[in-house]
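Would you be willing to look carefully at the protein I have copied below?

:::
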Amino acid sequence: MCGRFFLGVKAGDIMEHYNAPPPDLFTARYNIAPTTPVLALDQGGFDLYRWGLIPAWAKDLSMGNRMFNARAETVAEKPSFRNAYKRRRCLVPASGFYEWRLENGRKQPYCCHINHQLFSIAAIWEQWQDADGNEIQSCALLTTEARGAMQELHQRMPVSIAPQDYGSWLDCRSDRTDEADLLIRNTAPDYEYYAVGSAVGNSRNEGPELIVPIA
């Protein structure tokens, strides 16, 4: 799973990588947790989404609190995710994410990254409306079975989309779904990881010191 990630870059880095400007409210964050705003790119450009997908038919937004990840193996079938997968795919920029492993009776956090470079996590989004007519955009990150080095750390990992495939992933025309299926099945990010301090376990903690390696 992916329950915490970070995006430690400047607005100019986002613009250079995606050729699209982030919202004015964008700022680097090192401890992004579910239910908080995340930056995401769809075919219309960048926007901020609530992390935790709220299906259009949900009675209240609390349903999204536990739906921050969608399994790539079943995303096309699950009632909560299938419409978004077919019609509303997006990319969530990340510098890395965190996972925890039980060691010597305590959970040790690890920072996972791809050569310390900006990358994109496959995601889906939905638009939900409350009883007062207020609209909320929300999203979920796709995960798949861990591969490569990640198998030693966790059973799951985020699905990463390579830059040359951004257009294919975001193209939600009905005849392109098979191509999206192929992208998530063949994802092979070269994730690396190292141990970090326990401060990242509290989502109120923030700052680049969270990703400093520990011995």
Q: What stands out?
A: The mean pLDDT is 94.
